[in-house]
C-alpha cells in the first residue's frame, strides 16, 4: 500500500497553478508518466521525488510523507487483525483516513495498541505477576512505607521521654506515611483489578522505532558532531580512542575479565571504563566511541532525545543509548567515505566490515542510515529477528512494510539465515502487490566476552529490485527473470497466498487488497 | 546511613542517636561513596534501591576505590529475593535486613558489627 504521494503532488501542482504538461517538462518526464504518479500507480522516490519537490517548492521529506507511510502500513496491519473481522476496512479507506485526518489514524493506532497490550496482559498476567515492573516497584514502595510506619510506631511506643515537639512531629509523619500507603495500595488494587487502568502506551521499543522511523533513521546533528570529532580523533583503533578518553575526559580504560552481562562497566566516580579483554578490536572501538559520544556530546544527545517527547524515563534512557550508538557508528563509519565505499563495493557487507572493522549488523545498520538529503544511499529496510522469529529492530525506507504486531512471513530469508549460520544469503521476493525486493541476511555472532553468548539473531536488509544492480548479492540470483522471485507476504494474516505450505495463521481477507496475479 | 526515604532515615537516625551512635545520612549512591570516603564510618546501613547508582554499585565502587578499611555494611532493602541476598553476601556485605524490619533489630545489628570491629 503506497503513501498518497501522488495525491499530494497533484494537489500542490494545482495550488501553484501548474499544468501536468508543464510540471512533467520541468522534471523531464512524460506527462503520461506524471499522470500515473499522480494517481499513485507508480512508486516514486530518490532523485525524481527531490526534483518534483523542488519544482513545487516543498520539502521532499514532507512530500514523501515518511510518517504517513508508516501510519498507512500500520493501519493496514490493524485492518487485517481478527479484532476487526467484519468491518471490511479497505486499502483505499485506510489511505483516505491517513490523508484526510492523520490524527484519527494515530487515534485508531493508539486504541489498537491499547487493545493489543490488554490482550497481551491477559495472556501473560499469571506468569508476569512476579516480574511486572509496576508490581515490583509498587510492592517495594509499600514495604518501605510499612517499615517507616512501623519505625515511628515503635518509637512512640518505646520512648516515653519524647519531647512534645518530637511526639507531634512523629505523629504527623505517621499520618502522612499512612496516607501515602493508602494511595499506593489504591493504585495497586486498580492495577490488579483493571479498573482505572493506567493509560496504555507504546513500549519503549515501539516508541523508539516510531521516532527513528519518522526521522528516516538519520540524525544530522549527530552526524555533524561525529564529523567535528573525526577531525580531532584518529578513530581508527581502540588505542587512539582510549588515549583521547584519557586526555580529554580523564577516563582510564582498563581491559580485564568479562564485565557483567554487557562486557563493559563505567565507573562515574572513579572515571574508569572497564572493557572485557575478550572483546575484539571492532567491538571495543565501538564501545569507546559511544562513551566519547555520551561524555562529549551529552547536549546533542539530550536535544535529540528531548525532541522525541517520549512518555517514560525508561524510554528516554534507551533512546539516548540508541542515539549514542548511532553517534559511534557515525564516528567510526563517516558518512561520505562510507557511502562512497558502499557504492564502490556494491554494498559488499563483508568488504565494508573488513574496511571499517565492523560486524554484519553494524555495517547493515549504518547502510540504513544513509539518508542525508541530497546524498542519499539506496533506500533500505533493516530488520533484526531472533531464532523464534521475534523482531527486535526494524526500519524501512525501501517501501517494504515490516510487520509490527506479529512475526514476519516465514519465507523471508532472515529466518533461513539460521540454517546457514555466518553465511550471507540472499533472495528475490515478490509481495502480493507484485512489488519485488532483494533481501540479504546473515546471522550475527555476539562478540566474545560481550555477555551475550547464546543469543542468536539474524539481520536482514533489502531494497527494491530496481536497485538490485547496486548489490553484489544479486549476482548469483536470476536477475533477468524476476518471475522466479520467491512469493512471500508480510504476515500470514494479511497474505492471500492460500497455497503457501508455510502458512501459520488463516488469512483474513481485506476488501480492496491487491489481487493475486 | 544511605537511605533515600527521608522519613525512614529520620526514624532510624533518631533511634541510633538514642543508642549513642554518631549518624550521617546520604540520600543517593554517589554521595554515599563520597561521604564514606570522607568520614570513614565504622558501619554503613545501605539501602539497595538508591538513586544514582544502587547499593551493590556503592559496594563495588568502595572496593574499586581501595577504601581502607572497608566499612562494615548492612544492606537494607525491600527486596526479599534470595538472589539479592546471595549477591550481597558474595560482594562481602556483612549483614542483610529485609523490609519491613524492626528498628530494634537494625540498631542491635549495627551495634554488634561495631563491637565485632572493635574486637578484631
Task: Give a nutshell description of this structure.
Chain A is of the alpha+beta class. Chain A is 50% helix and 10% strand.
Annotate the secondary structure layout.
The complex is a heterodimer of chains A (517) and B (120).
Chain A: H1 5-15, H2 20-26, H3 31-38, H4 46-55, H5 60-64, H6 66-79, H7 91-100, H8 102-128, H9 133-158, H10 164-193, H11 204-214, H12 220-230, H13 238-249, E1 252-256, E2 264-267, E3 272-276, H14 281-296, H15 298-307, H16 313-332, H17 335-344, H18 349-356, H19 360-367, E4 381-386, E5 391-396, H20 413-416, E6 425-430, E7 436-444, E8 457-464, E9 486-487
Parallel strand pairs in A: 1-3, 6-9
Antiparallel strand pairs in A: 2-3, 4-5, 4-8, 6-7, 7-8
Helix pairs in contact in A: 2-3, 6-7, 6-8, 7-8, 9-10, 11-16, 12-16, 13-14, 14-16, 15-16, 18-19
Chain B: H1 6-18, H2 29-39, E1 43-47, H3 55-64, E2 72-77, H4 82-90, E3 95-98, H5 103-119
Parallel strand pairs in B: 1-2, 2-3
What does this 3D model show about the protein?
The complex is a heterodimer of chains A (517) and B (120). Chain A has 517 residues and is an alpha+beta fold. Chain A has 4 domains: 5-113, 434 Repressor (Amino-terminal Domain); 133-193, Orthogonal Bundle (Helix Hairpins); 206-332, Arc Repressor Mutant, subunit A; 364-494, 2-Layer Sandwich (Beta-Lactamase). Chain A is built from 20 helices and 9 strands. Chain A has helices at 5-15, 20-26, 31-38, 46-55, 60-64, 66-79, 91-100, 102-128, 133-158, 164-193, 204-214, 220-230, 238-249, 281-296, 298-307, 313-332, 335-344, 349-356, 360-367, 413-416; strands at residues 252-256, 264-267, 272-276, 381-386, 391-396, 425-430, 436-444, 457-464, 486-487. In chain A, the strands form 2 sheets. In chain A, strands 5-4-8-7-6-9 form a 6-stranded mixed beta sheet. Chain A has a 3-stranded mixed beta sheet with strand order 1-3-2, with helices on one face. The radius of gyration of chain A is 27 Å and the shape is globular. Chain B has helices spanning 6-18, 29-39, 55-64, 82-90, 103-119; strands at 43-47, 72-77, 95-98. A 3-stranded parallel beta sheet of chain B has the order 1-2-3. The two termini of chain B are 23 Å apart. Chain B is globular and about 35 Å long. Chain B is an alpha/beta fold. Chain B has a single domain, classed as 3-Layer(aba) Sandwich (Rossmann fold). Chain B is built from 5 helices and 3 strands. The longest helix of chain B is centred in the last third of the chain and has 17 residues, at 103-119. Chains A and B meet through helix 9 and helix 10 of A and helix 1 and helix 2 of B.
